[in-house]
Amino acid sequence: MTKFVQLLVSGIALGSIYGLVALGIVLVFKATRLFNFAQGFLMLVGAYLATTAIGNLHLPFWGAAAAVVAAMAVLGLVLYWIVVKPLIGRPTLVVVMVTIALSIVISAVLAMVYGPIDRVFPSPVSSRSFDVLGIRVALLDIVVFAVAMGCVVLFTLFFRFTRLGLEMRASAESIEAAALSGVNASRVFAVALAIGTALAALGGILLASEQSVVSTSLTDIGYVAFPAIVIGGLESVPGAIVGGIVVGVLELMGSGYFGATASNVLAYGALLAMLVIRPYGLFGERDIVRV
Amino acid sequence: MHRHRWSGVLLGTLAASASVLGFTAASAASPAKPSHHVRAAAYSNPSQGVLAKQLNVGIISDETGPTTATQIPWRDGIDTYLRLINKQGGVYGRKIVVDQCDEQYQVAPAMVCYKTMTSSSPQLAIMGLNDSDFQAAAMPLVRQQRMPIVGAESTNQESVNPFAPSFFALECTYPAQADVSVAFGMGLIHNYHASAVSLVLGVASGLEYGNTYIKERVLKAGGKYLGTFALPPTASNADAEAQQVAALHPQLIFMHGSPESSILFLKSLAKFGVKKTPIIGIFATEDPTVAKAVPAYEKYFYAVNCYDGANQPNVPGGHGLIKAAKAAGYPASIYTSTNFTNGYVVGETLVQGLLNAGPKVNRAALVNGLAKIKNFDTGLSPTVTFGPRNRIGIQEVRPYKFDPKFGTFAGVGQYAQYAACVADNEYITNSIAKWSPRCVPSSVYASLKKA
Question: Considering the entire predicted model, what is its pTM?
């Protein structure tokens, strides 16, 4: 029983990071119908920028994190104006290919700037852990979970009660109708990308804190976000986090009971099962199209 | 006029002899510094990468795949030494020109690189075959074509046994590392019946390090082998595996893997309360980022290797390497890596082989030239020795301990103090009959206590 609970606690913490990555993708999709395949690589940018802010600029950790998140939000705006805006109105496949190309460019630029050597990522919360009723809990695990829950609450309220959130939902439903209602679609898209990129940075910083090192392997987590999104629902904010947690728990249970290679089997098996049983996800809504 | 002609010939002969003698003396005394005064005869063999003014050699390494953190510094080390030699005039007046190919750590593109270098863009020698799977796939062709392969960053048993005349290994072998790791670890905790686990982290191959080499030595010593635990390269959490290891309470932990996965696992181990158990790693685990990332293990973390980092204390060849690396434009983050040292020594060894081969070089002559290398002191590793039937150039290894003062690892004792541990190369003999867990002299542990 202790083993099960331990794996559950570790899985929830890991899944919270997956959820944050998935949330960034969901937010952008919810507002723009754009699926951003570069999210994992944007995480890496955030992590590397944080190492520069802490190591070279000597900023304190939390100040560096805030500065990087803000800087990445600006980067999201820049990416919108340079990469996404020219493609508005083009077929979805074209936009998807552009995000894939963007991920390759980001990877190459980071390799050129930072080189192949991994960088140590100092974090004030990365190594403390304590015992709760026989279960080991890392302080970082609690921080990550709290941040993920905070984001769920924040963005749920944002989409429900703010004008910008309403405009984003309207644009996602029908950009033409939203434009006719006076919504500035360009502004909505830009803000959505800024938020998504900022969330990527946050996820990258937390993941780098978890691993204590920044390396190109951090981008692998971008791929794990996909089952999280499918399980949770592509347009659901709480669904992204719950989906991430489900994937994290399944991975840890697989590793713990069947071996490390079983973790992917369970996670992607759940993705397949969800696509068959409930393709719109746990929290998604079925689309009804009237002919 | 006749008299002047003979005088000229005599003087010319005397001058040439003096040059060759002087050059030979210089080579014997120090690492290779070929004189540009000795010019190559008008000889070329383009089908084997030998041109009048240049020698073409190939490097096959991972430039864009998952092992760039180790292979790029290795490649840069080779590049640094070859640039140094070219600045001095090359080898017998020929500059060494490198043709680089990205294997992406995948067998298919790696084989394309190899086939190109042996056919359409022929090279005199190839440095690479670093990926064990690629090495296994390419060796039948290497044997058939007798293509000189120098200094692969891994050594498969099948590459040296049966004997492959043109494969020159410069990477310490799994058996040698296991010989020293287990003996040193057991001596460290004064328990020759210790229980142990092996961790193979983030590397696609390497399970045999734990399952075979560590296990058989632990069992031979009378210890208890509790298992091999692996983490795939894509793992982003190691809690499940670390929990299992923690529950076993091992007295020794042996580790092989990538720095990122090693850090992940060590952090999880620390989380589950495994903190004072000595951890002895090999290969890429000897990375300051690993030791620094998990402060709880600084005092208990060792790595076994056959290459010194240039900035480590008491490394005779360190200054020369650093000077050459700076001249080549490489930053400290690259040239302090032991992988860089490894590459630098590969470059040195290749050039030594070229010198031994003489000006009329071809692949066969280079193979003979490399085989003549004996007790070649690089100042950065154990001495390199090949032989008529020996293609494992470096047999000795030693442990290194992380020194927070230097921010890097420092050798524990001298390579020669561990020679008794590696008396038997299992890759060749398929036996560990000569290995004893008590092969490490007590003076080694005494030096640790003093430090």
Answer: 0.84
